[in-house]
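Researcher: Go.
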Amino acid sequence: MKLSFTTREYAQLLELVYLGMQTVVNMQGEETPAMKRYADLEQKLLDLATPQGCADLVTVGSDGRLMFSDKMSTDERLGKIIGDHANDSFWRELVHRISDRDLAAEQVRQAATGKTGPAIDAELRLRELEDGLWSEFETNDLANVVLLKGAQG
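Model: Structure:
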């Protein structure tokens, strides 16, 4: 297969690969199967950077392998994308985990009290819990969050 890129397009492709690799490293670590899965492809793309006119975006690491140059890690646009992703991931995960915990607690309480009546619609209740948390966090950020170390829910 033969592909043709302008220098600008190839630079954008390298930015996309950089962002993807940062996501894998930040979520899973450097020595993981996910990282290893993409390492050879990353090397192929970095190897083509110089012929594509993007030599300033790559450098040679201490291990002799090509790596992204400091130009990528100091690029404010890319840093903002990575930061926004990390922030969004944090809030989504926090809302999801707290909502799951609270739903499970409600279900246990309902079962323990022997309450009769319709069972909790888990999907609907989970959405309600998530919506409530989103509203709280959008209004107050973490100001009202209290961590009880060692507490048993």
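Model: The two ends are 57 Å apart (CA to CA).
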